[in-house]
Structure formats: C-alpha cells, structure tokens
Design brief:
Structural class: alpha+beta
Strand content: 15-25%
Number of strands: 12
Largest sheet: 5 strands, antiparallel
Shape: elongated
Length: about 375
C-alpha cells in the first residue's frame, strides 16, 4: 500500500509493509487497527511502517516518514535533552540487548510520549534485522497521576482536622488533668473518641478504594436478611434524633434468599441513607423488592432490588454521570466524596448494579440490585 493510496491511514495496511516485507503481525491484522502507535524499522535503520496512531501521536504525515532514517522520522530526546536513538544505538549497541522498556521521552516541541522498543534478531546476539517501536500518549497516565494526587490531598485535608483535635485535647488533659471537672473530662474524651472514629473510617475508605481499584475487594458471602438490615439503619437514624415520620419502608413479598457480605451491605445501606437524610428533604422512602437479576426473562436468576429516594432538590441531570466517580460531592461540601465510589465498587463486587435517577418526589433516587449469590458449593 503506498502513501498516496492510503490517505490518512497510510503506508502499512495488512500484516506486510509497502515493499511486501512481513511485519510479523499475523494474517489479516492491519497495523492501523492497533490502538497504540507502531513504527517498524528495517535492518538499515529506515522506517518501513508508520501506522495511523503513530502519525497522530507524533503529529506527522505517515507518508512523509516512510523510507527515512529512524532518527529523522522520529526525533526523540530523553528528559535530559539527549538524542535517544544515538544514546541507545539499537544497531551498534550490545548484541545481547532485546529492546528498551517503556519510558517517557520527548517529541519535538517538548511533547511527552511513552516509548518502548523491541530488537528483532534472526538468532541470539545476531544483528538487528528489524526494530519495532510502540508509542503511547501520556493522557491516561496523567489522569491516573492527577487522581492519585487528588486522593492524597483529600486524605491529608480530612486527616488534619481530627488529628489536630485529638492531639490538642490529649495534650491538654495530660498537662492539666486536675483542673477539669469530670463532666469536662468526659466531653473532651468523647470528642477524642469521635475524631478517632472519623480517622478510622477514612482509613477504611482508603483500603476499600485500594482493593476496588486493584480488583481485590473480597466478598464473604453468607445469608443476609436485607429487610432487617434496612430496619436497623432506620432505627439508628431515629435514635440519633430523626423523627419516625421521616422514613417510609416498603418490603415487597417474595424476597429470594440473599447471600452477600453483611458488613459491606451495611456499608452500602448506611451510605445511601446517610446521603438521603443529610442532603435530601422530606420523606426518605426505602423499598425492598424481588427482581429478575438478569432482566426478567423466564428462568432468570432472581435477586433483590433496594431503592432509596427522598423529596429534596435531587441531583442535576448534568451531574448524574459523575455521581459514582471519586470526589463527587454535589452542591454541598463536606465529606471526602468517596462514599458513592465505594458503594458502586461493593455492589459490582457482588455481581450487582447500581443506578441513580430522579425519584417520584423529585429528589434523588438510588437503586441497587443484588443477585441471589448462592455459593457454588451450595447451589
């Protein structure tokens, strides 16, 4: 395929280059279909393939670089300003080298790109017959780095306040114990206890995020009475001062037996009810109902759906796609903004789904569905 015939996809359609040389990509695989940039260089150091992704990343026309020396077609520098191909010397360097691991390099103009290379030899320690280079943009890595930086900043901010309180009260009590009455001591210790619990919750959230991101969130399944769990959370809110008329619980008949991690289900229910009470208004409605977990087909696995809705202002339509992302806090500040991200991770670890929408009363409505989840040994 020639550059003039290929247009923007240019120069290396199929698994062979424009001269018919096999690129080793397998039959029927077009290099332009690869998501990463691919550059193939022959034994003379000249480019024989420059796919569409490589042209986009390097901001050049693929047809303009075919046949050119690699150092001219792809003039890379390391972060110290050294010319990369002259530094690594793929063709004249150590004969035992098999390639270069991925690293950050600079294109003309200072744009960063992730580059890795493989040296293809006909025999070990033989001359390099082909150099295969892959290019990737740094956008995904930068997003990950920004997310980690935001997480660190959020954690540092959230930890500072309770730890300052704990340190201040304990130092005061140690230095002036005799000067305080028993009631004053109790108030200080209760404050210390509450702040220590806040730190513990934050650390637990961080551990949950780590496990969710790495796919290592463990689910210890056992029978769960989810209607009873909902009742416990409602009673806890009423004991803390909420009126009994603030909640309406509806449990439908025919709930299937549910196998789930009771602690994690409590975490999900606690977060959703806390959000509804704190950020919503009016009556908080909790409905527990049986559902066909795979969409209602005949013989489908049954599951349980829990819906939590309120009558507050709700969530703006444009924000609903971001509700389950890290650090989303809505219009009101406070908290880490990690709770709903963790809730989604827990529900999905159980094989379920969670959605957000607008409730019948105009407020936010969260609905999560859990499959029965009977362990294979008992099925």
């Amino acid at each position: 395929m020639t550059a003039s015939a290929a247009g923007p996809r240019a120069v290396c359609g199929g698994s062979r280059d424009r001269t018919g040389v096999d690129l080793g990509l397998g039959p029927g695989l077009d290099p332009d279909d690869l998501p990463d940039g691919l550059v193939v260089v022959d034994e003379g150091g000249r480019v024989i393939c420059f796919n569409a992704a490589a042209a986009r990343i390097a901001a050049v026309r693929a047809g303009d670089v075919i046949g050119r020396p690699l150092e001219k077609a792809l003039p890379l520098e390391d972060l110290k300003g050294r010319r990369w191909w002259a530094l690594t010397d793929p063709y004249g360097g150590l004969a035992t080298r098999v390639g270069q691991p991925e690293r950050n390099l600079l294109l003309p103009g200072g744009r960063e790109v992730l580059v890795s290379a493989r040296y293809v030899r006909e025999r070990p320690t033989g001359p390099v017959r082909r150099l295969v280079v892959t290019l990737r943009g740094t956008e995904a890595r930068r997003r990950t780095e920004r997310s980690h930086a935001e997480l660190i900043a959020t954690v540092a901010h959230e930890l500072r306040s309770p730890l300052t309180s704990v340190k201040g009260f304990t130092a005061t009590l140690l230095a002036k114990w005799e000067r305080f009455t028993d009631d004053q001591k109790r108030l200080m210790l209760e404050t210390v206890d509450a702040d220590a619990s806040r730190v513990t919750r934050l650390i637990a959230e961080l551990l949950d995020i780590s496990r969710i991101d790495s796919g290592r969130l463990e689910v210890r399944r056992q029978p769960v009475d989810i209607a009873a769990a909902v009742g416990r959370h409602v009673q806890a809110h009423m004991a803390s001062g909420q009126g009994s008329d603030r909640f309406f619980v509806r449990v439908r008949r025919g709930l299937p037996a549910l196998w789930a991690d009771p602690d994690k289900i409590d975490q999900v229910l606690g977060n959703l009810l806390e959000n509804a009470v704190r950020h919503g208004a009016g009556t908080v409605t909790i409905e527990v109902a049986p559902v066909a977990a795979t969409g209602g087909e005949s013989g489908a696995e049954r599951g349980t759906a829990v819906t939590v809705s309120d009558e507050g202002p709700g969530i703006p339509e444009e924000s609903m796609s971001r509700v389950f992302t890290r650090f989303w806090r809505g219009s009101k500040r406070g908290g880490t903004g990690l709770g709903l991200y963790i809730v989604k991770g827990i529900v999905e670890a159980h094989g379920g789904t969670i959605t957000v929408g607008r409730g019948p009363g105009g407020g936010a409505e969260f609905r999560f569905t859990l499959p029965v989840g009977v362990p294979a040994a008992l099925a």
